[in-house]
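Observation: inputs received (chain + manganese (II) ion).
Thought: call the complex predictor directly.
Action: predict_structure
Action Input:
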Amino acid sequence: MINFETLHTRFGARVTGIDLADDLDDETFAKLREGFASHSVLVFPDQPLTDEQQIAFSKRLGPLEATKVGSYGAGTPLVILSNVGEDGNVVPDDHRLNMVHKANSLWHSDSSFKPTPALASMLSAKTVPPEGGETEYASMIVAWDDLPEDTKAKIDGKIALHHFAASRNRINPELMTQAEYDELPPVKQIMVRDIPETGKKSLYVGSHASAIVGMPDDEAKQLIDELVAFATAPERVYTHTWRANDVVLWDNRAVVHRGRPFARDKHARVMIRTTIAGDSPTVRV
Ligand code: OGA
Ligand code: MN
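Observation:
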């Protein structure tokens, strides 16, 4: 029997009593889908999935994104987050593979830089470092609920520009490739989203957001930073400490997340992500 246990007082659940490698019956899957929308982050311990099993389960939630140009796994449904080089050894701290993890250490929602941003991400831990390398989640539904009314009024209905370069350039201005500039121009995203299944609203900003339509850039950048800082205050954060074979499924409409540092030049960390596409842009173009 599928079972949900609360992880944080306001969002997140640990899910036991199911095997994600199974072809779940419709009733169990419906409970899981409902739990996904109501808890925003689902943690499934002890799920040693093959890539095919992860893809098969993810596909039940919707069509998968193809991994973007410039990422490890490009063109396939898998994003490979790894600091292990082709020779089987951990790569140096300044290696490109580690840059991905460093960029992921800024609070973000996956694929908010795409015209149709991701619905969900599913990350499975293959190799985890003995310490560090946690992933943190902050609920943007909770953040929206807690925002002062005057701030809500200021941003409701506003549109932000999201650009992959905005997050990469914060880590290293040389990180963006020409192919990434060409294929990923800035996109518009609504700043406050509706989650249709629950009728909740969520704040939608993160490290890819670089500007707000109709607002001077300095003011917009400051507001975006303030909103992210508010949303990710420690009391609104769930920290997931990974064990090998943990699977975490999160709702990119409803949370931002970030990776935490670890001794990248000492310990291996290998994670596999599938990304479930959203069904439409957040802004009518
Ligand atoms: C991701 C991500 C952070 C981490 O997989 O989308 O941001 O801790 N991961 O690896
Ligand atoms: Mn991410």
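Thought: report the result.
Final Answer: The first strand starts at residue 3 and ends at 6. Residues 104, 108, 110, 257 surround manganese (II) ion (ligand 2) (CB under 6 Å).
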